[in-house]
Amino acid sequence: MNCSKHHDREAKGMCVRCNRLICEECAVKINNKYYCKECVSEMYSTDNENDNTYNNMNYTIIVSLIYAKAITNNINEINNPNNNQEQLDLGKVNSYTNVNVSDSLYRNSNNNSQENLYSNYQTNQYGNTGVKIDRKYKEASYVLSIIAIALLIPKVVLAIGGFADCFENMYLSIRYDEGVRALFFFINSLLTLIEPLIIIALAALSFKNFMKLKKVVRIIAPIAVVAIFTLLIFITGNIALRFIYISPFISMLSYIIPVALIVIANCLDKE
Prior knowledge:
Blueprint: E1 13-14, E2 21-22, E3 27-30, E4 33-36, H1 37-50, H2 52-79, H3 90-161, H4 163-177, H5 182-204, H6 215-241, H7 247-253, H8 256-268
Antiparallel strand pairs: 1-2, 3-4
């Protein structure tokens, strides 16, 4: 019977894995069993797909066994020149193992490249998703800030219109009261104008943080501004009018919605 690969050569044995007839050139003897070169390669390749670390060790053992068997056979050949049936040519083993080592290195390199490409793809996908989410939050922050500013503009207009009454009260105070309360009338009207302007500036920080304020400060600042200015307007108003002036507390309620919108917008903003 002839070799299944080299039809003009007599078969030396049969591969225990694929049962193909193999000649001396095709035969690889491991642990007194004959394997063809293809099966040895497939055994290593299959293992390599499952566990690279384990397979590298396994392949090293196989190659070591081949070398050990080749050296043993050469020694036997010297001692017994007539026993050539189970000899393996060391040069043939070298060429065969070198080819397989090169193939294994190529496969490992190729597998690592594919894994790196897939890892980079996943990283890019997650990165793009994160950018899209941040953009959505930023857009929502812009919308809330614009609504808050729109609610605060009428208060600025009303405060500017209130200066007419302020100047009238200052004139009457100067004429009949020697101007003692005139200064407090002006301070009261000025505070009423400055308060919504400061809150509008804080709302604008959602578009560009030109004040370089931290996120926590931008969240707390609108609430603190309303509280402080309400107290100052209450004090100056009571001194100017000489009676309990509760209008600042009523006005404070109108700041709840725009301030809440600004706080939410700053919470959504990613630093």
